[in-house]
Amino acid sequence: MTKSTEEMEERIGKEAGRHRNFEDMHVYEQAREMTSRIYRLTRVGKFARDFGLSDQIRRAAVSVMSNIAEGFERGTRKEFVQFLFIAKGSCAEVRAQLSVALDQEYCGRADYDELVVHCRRLSGMLANLIKYLRRTTPDSRRGSPSPR
């Protein structure tokens, strides 16, 4: 692992530990932004008429936010990590569904590229938070956890 990756994990992990509310976490804000963008995209044109795909991609986007929130509120590091993995999987699901939308010409290449980049960045943030939480001792769920 490179020093910059370790620093990023540390920064993201400390951020998670210092917040009392999931709404204040940057990773949650990014998930919320992605969800808003998905809703805007699926409201117009051909995408709006494909109720199945529109509903599925919206649910996957909402799942990312919801799992960050639920995991945070569960109160244990182990459960938080479990829910972050689910959020990460939902993020991948959004990317897969965006590929279908692009192939069906429901969205343009620019919207697709922007959202995929956003999803990949969000997935990386989730991965870094998971790594950080796994490296720290579970003695305090909130606050700055100490490394093993």
How would you describe this structure to a colleague?
- It is a single chain.
- With 148 residues, this protein is mostly helical.
- It has one domain: 23S rRNA-intervening sequence (de novo design (two linked rop proteins)), CATH 1.20.1440.60.
- Helix content is 78%, strand content 0%.
- It is built from six helices and no strands.
- It has helices spanning 3-18, 26-42, 45-49, 51-74, 77-103, 109-135.
- The longest helix has 27 residues, at 77-103.
Tags for this entry?
148 residues, de novo design (two linked rop proteins), disordered C terminus, mainly alpha
Lay out the secondary structure.
Elements: H1 3-18, H2 26-42, H3 45-49, H4 51-74, H5 77-103, H6 109-135
Helix pairs in contact: 1-6, 2-4, 2-6, 4-5, 5-6
